[in-house]
Amino acid sequence: MKKTATLALAATTFFTFAQPKKANQTAAFTTSGKTITVYTTAENTKLRLSQTDKLSFGIAKQPLETEISIFVEPNKTFQTFMGIGGAITDASAEVFAKLSKSKQQELLQAYYNTENGIGYSLLRTTIHSSDFSSGSYTYVKEGDSELKSFNIDHDKKFRIPMIKEAIKTAGGKLTLYVSPWSPPAFMKSTGNMLKGGTLKPEFNQAWANYYAKFIKAYEKEGMPIWGLTVQNEPMATQTWESCIYTAEAERDFLKNFLGPTLKKEGLGDKKIVVWDHNRDLINQRANVIFSDPEASKYAWGIGFHWYETWAGGAPMFENIQKVNETYPTKNLLFTEGCVEKFDSNKYQLWANGERYGTNMIHDFNNGTVGWTDWNILLDQNGGPNHVGNFCFAPIHADTNSGELIYTPSYYYIGHFSKFIRPDAKRVSTAVSRSSLISTSFLNKNGKLVTVVMNQGDKNVTYNLIISNEKTVIEIPAHGIQTLVY
């Protein structure tokens, strides 16, 4: 059954974030005098990011094997958190434009406001068209290898206005990065933007120039670009816009063309992310590119998606951990995930939200610095999509009724994005039983955030133990909690 809702957030004043202290002034975390505020979302309840408890710490004794405990060690820190967000695609922007002004504001607040919404701080968008566009297009006339006709007028109708509104709602700053799905048809071996093919060698420089022109054009419109990925899903021949790069081909394009071109064009500060595909082959891509010093110097890190499960297996979280331990100076960024095969009967399917929670906890625990969902908004058909690849988004708009439909995925993502803020540090967290999974981050204002997830059919009582202090909490069946203390 379709369920239309407005934000079901508790009427609570959430913590604000102080200016960061200087490194030599940062005190060790302590539970002394702290209270734990618990926010809960759970299936078969009305709880949606709702404040459900206010607890205190007491003295902890040796936990028993019969108890379930979460152990947090704030003095052991790992990666610095970059942020969480989603993609504003042509599809998202086209649907957004069909909403009333009040619903547009509701959507923007729901995603980008830190108090009334879930505080997105990352934003991905595409370099010309993807499958989530109403049709294929580029920014140049066909055959214009000198890019004399380059312009982004297409994006000024829907996408750019929405991105600007998102930045404004987020307080004037979002970390924005961009990704291409395919070079123009004339640059490719197949003469077609769709169905794979490769970049013709004679267009290596023209294609590198294209990225630079796009970044400059967007920045001229007042949208600072933090970085870019080299190619979306470079090992997938899709029915939509796609282009194949072997690891060696991506390495050579990066070190011989894209990296030097951005530097020459005064864009050497832009962060370049390689791979931008699934976890299954990520280790081989990292080995080939990061082991080459000339290519590696241009690569800020490596991006990945969650669709390796298409082959029938489980998510390969351990591959992310292996990249992290092998190349500790490179950053890991989740660049895309969505629930495939749209079905309006499954708007409120709880497993879709749990998929987000599970992936986010494991990815963060394995060293990921940022996490980006796919489309932030789609219509009641899971589109528009010009090749029929309809999918779910955390929020859908019924363009017939004008209403917004919030799915469980929105609330699961919010348990992280609302409370864990950019520049937080992940801290050591472990669970004594597999019935729960958990991750923790220490914000720069001194607030510690622990996210706990229960995918089981029964409520679970657990201890939160820090040093010699603890509190006891109950999490509902098929629930997720954020503890702020």
Tell me, briefly, the overall form: globular
Rg is: 22 Å
Strand arrangement, largest sheet? 2-1-21-18-17-16-4-19-20-3
Helix amount, in percent? 10-25%
Strand residue percentage: 25-35%
Helix count from the secondary structure assignment: 10
Total beta-strand segments: 21
Helix-strand category? alpha/beta
Sheet with the most strands? 10 strands, mixed
Query: Distance between the terminal alpha carbons, to the nearest Å?
Result: 37 Å
The pLDDT mean sits at 95
Low-confidence stretches: 1-26
Protein name: Glycoside hydrolase family 30 protein
Domain Glycosyl hydrolase family 30 TIM-barrel: 83-420
Pfam families: Glyco_hydro_30, Glyco_hydro_30C
Signal peptide: 1-18
Description:
Mean pLDDT is about 95; it is low at about 1-25. It contains ten helices and 21 strands. Helix 1 (about 90-95) packs across helix 3 and helix 4 (about 205-220) packs across helix 5 (about 245-265). The protein is an alpha/beta fold and about 475 residues long. The strands form three sheets. The protein has a ten-stranded mixed sheet, with helices on one face. An eight-stranded parallel β-barrel has the order 5-6-7-8-9-10-11-12, surrounded by seven helices. It has helices at about 90-95, 100-110, 160-170, 205-220, 245-265, 280-290, 295, 315-325, 350-365, 410-415, and strands at about 35-40, 50-55, 60, 70-80, 85, 120-125, 175-180, 225-230, 270-280, 300-305, 330-335, 370-375, 375-380, 395-400, 405, 425-430, 435-440, 450-455, 460-465, 470-475, 480-485. It comes from Flavobacterium turcicum. Keywords: Glycosidase, Hydrolase, Signal.
